[in-house]
Design brief:
The protein is an alpha+beta fold. The chain has a single domain (12-74), classed as Beta Polymerase, domain 2 (2-Layer Sandwich), CATH 3.30.460. Helices cover 31% and strands 24% of the residues. It contains three helices and four strands. The protein has helices spanning 21-37, 68-74, 76-79, and strands at 12-17, 44-48, 53-57, 61-66. It has a four-stranded mixed β-sheet with strand order 1-4-3-2. The longest helix has 17 residues, at 21-37.
Length: 90
């Protein structure tokens, strides 16, 4: 989601759902490894796979990984509806 026109702290949100903690760990590892290969490291990380939510802050992009119930509850797409969906994959 491109939120650069409505946010002062980042340009993009990446929002994804992981079905279980194991899948969330795999997503975390994959994102961090792929970006590290390009010289990009997370500035900070919040949450954990067992909490149902993980945030990886890369500065210009923030990755939100949710368990299904937490994604529905926090509804980032609704809260940031003024942003522009860049890619939507189901």
């Amino acid at each position: 989601m491109d939120i650069s026109k409505v946010s002062s702290f980042t340009d993009y949100f990446v929002v994804a759902t992981a079905s279980n903690p194991r899948q969330m760990n795999a997503l975390i590892d994959s994102v961090q490894r792929d970006l590290r290969d390009d010289g990009v490291r997370a500035l900070r990380t919040e949450g954990g796979p067992d909490s149902g939510w993980v945030l990886l802050d890369f500065g210009n992009a923030i990755v939100h990984l949710f368990a299904p119930d937490e994604r529905d509850y926090y509804n980032l797409e609704g809260l940031w509806a003024q942003g522009v969906s860049v890619v939507h994959i189901q």
